[in-house]
Amino acid sequence: MQKTKLGITIGMLSAVVYFTALAGGYTPLFLLVGYILLFEQNDWLRRVCYKAVALTIAFSGAMMIVNLVPQAFGCLSNFLGIFNGYLPYGVISSIVSFITSVISLVETALFLLLALKAIKLQDVKVQKIDNFIDTL
Questions:
Q1: Is residue 134 a part of any domain in this protein?
Q2: Number of domains the chain contains
């Protein structure tokens, strides 16, 4: 098995990238990806970095868009309150909460699957993200 400059296998470092994307937040992920892109030469490992960052940004963007819905309803409700109007948005808030839970579950499952496959130097195809990475 091919090893990185850190002395661990490429599969193990790629799994660490996916686990960091899942649990570490942006700063540790970008530091790890930065190290890999600067010092490691393996193309597969670099692709893993691009995929982890792209997926992290995609899931964050999806959560941000979904969470705009209750804010918009709250703003509209406050505006209607000026004219003694009322807009109940409790149901909308519950639906948004359900959707964010589903997105979070899919994110966790996908990153765990990617990390487990990465240990064996295998990949899980995520069509839109992989096509985007191919254009880089």
A1: no
A2: 1
Output the tens digit of pLDDT for each of the chain's 136 residues.
789 998 999 999 999 999 999 998 899 999 999 999 999 999 999 999 999 999 999 999 999 999 998 888 888 888 888 888 777 777 788 889 999 999 999 999 999 999 999 999 998 888 888 888 888 7
Q: Is residue 3 part of a domain?
A: no
Question: Cβ neighbours of residue 111 under 8 Å, at least 6 residues apart?
Answer: 18, 19, 21, 22, 52, 55
Predicted model pTM: 0.87
Range of the domain at 68: 10-123
